Amino acid sequence: MSIKAQGYGFALLAITIFSLQDAISKHLALEYPPVFIAMIRYWAYGLFVLGVIARRRIGWSVLTRSKRPVLQIIRSILLALQVILAITCFSWIGLAHAQAIFAGTPLVVALLSILFLNEKVDWSRWLAIIAGLVGVMIILRPEGDFLDFKMLLAVAGTIMFAVYAILTRFVGRQDTSETTFLYTGLIGAITLSLIGPFFWTSIHGSGYFWLAVVCCTSISSHYFLIRAYSLLDASAVQPLSYLGLVYASMIGIIVFDETLDWLIILGACVVVGAGIFYLTREHAASKQARVRAA
Question: 294 CB contacts (<8 Å, ≥6 apart)?
């Protein structure tokens, strides 16, 4: 099997497991507070981070030495809080509906990159961004549910993750990936450990099993994603993330009896289509830049 095929295999495994993790989190949210679930997930993720770093045998003084420590802390806290919002949205508005809105994240990232990182884009990518945002508006339906707090929560989660991605790009210009990885796991675990105990709920029955499973999915999904990024460019992995929306729709309908009307399906298709088009144009522009620099 070629290295590229292995990379796509790891990416598909990661996306599949992330989708299962979201479904289990939604199931757990029926009985436990989202903050509590996120804390348990981050404890598992934090242990995974420690294990990965320990295997690389790099000194802690080197790993924690960041040129942008404040931004590292902010982005890590932002991601931890976004996980809480995501679990809440899965519980309140459903897996499929929430993921349809979250699918607009890459386009929000692109828009913020233009505004704050001074990245240049051509008219075709601007068209993709605008089309994607229109798709999100179709899902939200401004004439009806737009002012619904639950829907706005999903929009807030999308923006939070986009800001997290922008900050990750920014710190990645000066810090190593190991340092960023360490901050993400440990700061997130510490943050949720400070607020999670206030939402502590007694675990009962099958809760122990499902919490153990969600911890396993948290560790394995991140492991496979790291392996995928070690073998493929980010531009190759990102389009596959839209499979998460397909998984969410299938699981939501089959397992949780969720319903999708034609406007949600139309909006999701517009968002995914615009996102894939944008990423394709971005990859082509990046390839041309490398050719000119060679």
Answer: none
